[in-house]
Amino acid sequence: MGGPGDPPEGTPEGAPGGGEDEYRSVVFDESFVRAARLQEYSAQERISDHAPAVRRVAPLRRGLSRQALVLVLLIAVAFGTAIYMGVRHPYQTPAAQETAEPLRMTVIPLAPEGKVPGTADTAYLYERSPAAQFKTGAEGVPLPASRRTAHFSDSQVVAALTTAKDYIVRSALDPAVLTGREVRAVRVLLAPDQLDQFDQSFARPTADGRHAPTGWLVRFDPSRAELADRRVRVQGTLQAAEADSSTLEVTADHTFVYALRPAGAGDKAEASLFTVRRELHFRFDRDDLRLHQAQLVVSYVQAGPLSCAEDSTNHLRPLLAGQTAKEGGPAGTDPYATGSATALCGSLATSAQPRV
User: Residue 56 in 3-state DSSP?
Assistant: First the structure.
C-alpha cells in the first residue's frame, strides 16, 4: 500500500523515486521569487471592491533612493570644496619674516678739560648744572602725542613708543642694570634675531661696533663708582614714523645725568655728575608690536667725564670728583647740544659740568 503522498496507483514505473524528486531540477532564482511575491487583501478591501484575495506587490527597486543620492552628492561637494580651499584658500600666505639687522653702535668717551667738580651735596650739583630743569627718572621719558599712519593704527603707534620707552628706562635708569648686576630686564625686550648678538656682546665684549655692552645699556664699573643718588635726571624726545607699509621706526634722543661717588666711600664722600647722551633707533614690524619687543638698529652714545685711555667697551669707568683725564681728545663736545660728535674720543665741554 502506498504512502499518504503517493498516487493511488503508486509511483509510475520509470518515474523518479519519491514525490520531491520530480521538482529537484527546478531552480527558483531571486528575481523569480521577488516577482512572485503576493500580498493578501484585507477583508474590507475584498468586501468593497470584490477584488481577488491577493494582489501582486511591486518588486523592490534596485539602486539608491533619491534621498540617499542627494546625501552622497552633498558629501561629494563638501569634500571637493574642502580640498579646493586647502589648495587655494583666499588668505595670502604671509611672506617669510625678514631677519632683524645687527645693532650698529658707537660709544664716544668725553674727557674733561680739567678736574672733575664735586661736592657731597648731590642736589647742589644738579642745581648748578645744565640738568637743573630735567625730570627725574621715567618722568623724563614722556610719550609724545601719537597719530596713526597710513598703515598703522593709533594703538600700534602707541605700542611702538611704549616699547621704546620701556627699553630706555630699563637700560639706562634701572639701578640693577647701572651697577652691572642685571641684563635680562633689557634682553627680554629685544627681537629674537638680535639675542645672539646681545649675548655675544656680554660674553666676549669687543670694540668692533657690534659687541660692546655699553652700546646696549648704561652700566658703570662697580669697582670704581656707585650711585650717590638713584634719582637720575633725564630729558629727551621720542618720535615715531612709518618706514614702509610693514615697519614703524622710533627715534629716541635722551640725555641722562647721574650723581656718582667712589665705590664703597660712604655717604660723606664727594659726588660728581656723569652725563650720557644716547641716540637710539628702533624698528618694529607687526609681530614686534604684538609681542612687545623691539629691533634696536642704531645706538650712538656720548659719555663723560671719561678718560680716552680707558676702555669703555664693557663698562663705563667714570672720572670722579677731583680726578683728571690722562689724555684728552679732539675739540670739546657738549652732550647737551643737539649736534652729534664725530670723533671716537672727545673732550667734555666745560659748560657741560656743574659750576661748583
Answer: strand
